Amino acid sequence: MIQGASADGASAKEKFAKEALAKAASVKDASVKGASARGAFVCIVGPSGAGKDSLLMHARSILANDPAIVFPRRLVTREHNDAEDHDSISREAYEAGVREGAFCLHWEAHGLGYALPMAVREAVEGGKVVVCNVSRAIISEIFERFDNVHVVLITAPPTVIMERLRQRGRESGASIDARMERSKRLSAVLNPDLTIMNTGPVEIGGERLSRFLRRVAEKCAVVREGV
Ligand SMILES: Nc1ncnc2c1ncn2[C@@H]1O[C@H](COP(=O)(O)OP(=O)(O)O)[C@@H](O)[C@H]1O
Ligand SMILES: O=P(O)(O)OC[C@H]1O[C@H](OP(=O)(O)OP(=O)(O)O)[C@H](O)[C@@H]1O
């Protein structure tokens, strides 16, 4: 039984954990190198609060009718909220998934566990452009795992980010400070294909992102069809 839970609570949690794992684990082998040339993996990265989820949501709505570009939901050990579109997963289910190799990719940040389901690999192999908000700390792992990787950095000046994190109102002051500190450590190591300075309206950044994604999809189609 899960510690600290009642018998009923534990069985509900275990059921939830099993369902989440079943969803995430359609394929067990996480090695994809060499098998992903048909599609592309697009990493959306940048400091917490820069606007990654906002631009992703906008680009997703612009590209809703384009079947070549997909935006898989992440599994996050955080409650659902309107600012991002993720599947909530319990800490127990997340840890079981990591142990059992059930995820395509996983990482820890801000005291939370994040994972991408195995369906991500299947989509890239199937020729899709797969767009995911990921940690800057796992970019090199993604390059090792996938052949065709693109990196989009979404950023903004630190003062703007700080203000946005405050206004978002999801984290405490200490948690905002920790996010700002983490960004300082991770920002130097990137060599992005596209940088979006998200200081204008969300619509402008979202349109820029969607234009880039369309270009990636067009290139994938050209390579696949040998034109
Ligand atoms: N271009 C923008 N202009 C004004 N506010 C923005 C813009 N982009 C994002 N925001 C706001 O900033 C906050 C952080 O954005 P979010 O998309 O959650 O960032 P991230 O996913 O990078 O952590 C949210 O409250 C969001 O509404
Ligand atoms: O290692 P880093 O590059 O700093 O990234 C850490 C995490 O922060 C982002 O998530 P998320 O969008 O959930 O962050 P948020 O909680 O600030 O929205 C990103 O997708 C990672 O999951």
UniProtKB/TrEMBL annotation:
One of its GO terms (cellular component) is cytosol. Pathway: Metabolic intermediate biosynthesis; 5-phospho-alpha-D-ribose 1-diphosphate biosynthesis; 5-phospho-alpha-D-ribose 1-diphosphate from D-ribose 5-phosphate (route II): step 3/3. GO terms for molecular function: ATP binding; ribose 1,5-bisphosphate phosphokinase activity. GO terms for biological process: 5-phosphoribose 1-diphosphate biosynthetic process. The keyword Protein biosynthesis does not apply. Residues 39-214 form the Guanylate kinase-like domain. Coiled coil: none annotated. Keywords: ATP-binding, Kinase, Nucleotide-binding, Transferase. The keyword Transcription regulation does not apply. Its EC number is 2.7.4.23. It catalyses: alpha-D-ribose 1,5-bisphosphate + ATP = 5-phospho-alpha-D-ribose 1-diphosphate + ADP. PANTHER family: GUANYLATE KINASE-RELATED, RIBOSE 1,5-BISPHOSPHATE PHOSPHOKINASE PHNN. This is ribose 1,5-bisphosphate phosphokinase. It comes from Pseudochelatococcus contaminans.
